[in-house]
Amino acid sequence: MKINKGLEVTRNIKIIEWLKTEILSSVSALYDLMFNGARSTDEVVQDVLANIIMTTYLLSKRLGLKYSDIDNKIKEKIKAAIIEEHKIEKWYGDLSTLKEHIKSRE
Q1: Which among 27, 43, 57, 72 has the fewest CB atoms less than 10 Å away?
Q2: How many domains does the chain have?
Q3: Using CA atoms, how far apart are residues 55 and 9, in angstroms rounded to an integer?
Q4: Which terms in the Gene Ontology molecular function aspect does this entry carry (predicted)?
Q5: What one-character DSSP code corresponds to residue 65?
Q6: Residue pLDDT, tens place only, 47-103
Q7: Side-chain half-sphere exposure of 21, counting CA atoms within 13 A
Q8: What is the distance between the alpha carbons of residues 49 and 30, in angstroms, rounded to a whole number?
Q9: pTM across the whole model
Q10: DSSP 8-class letter at 38
Q11: What are phi and psi of 38, to 5 degrees?
Q12: Full residue range of the structural domain in which residue 39 is found
């Protein structure tokens, strides 16, 4: 029984490290794509961004959080940034649009 628990802990640590590496690799790929002039409409850019989001959710689960915990934290951060009149909200209204997008998914 103890050996199995130890293996599970080791396996969890290994997957956490892999997920962290995956996030870093994806961010690096995004920087490379942007540097080389890829457009936001390019499927490869969308793929990389989706991978970053998906991997972040998976990492949060491995760290003991629920997906809904992350969703709630995102909502809190959006609300706070809107109240604080973050520049991206003042200039483009992106946080309000994101808030509405998240609300429409519920």
Answers
A1: 43
A2: 2
A3: 20
A4: nucleoside triphosphate diphosphatase activity
A5: -
A6: 999 999 999 999 999 999 999 999 999 999 999 999 999 999 999 999 999 999 999
A7: 6
A8: 7
A9: 0.86
A10: -
A11: -65, 150
A12: 1-65
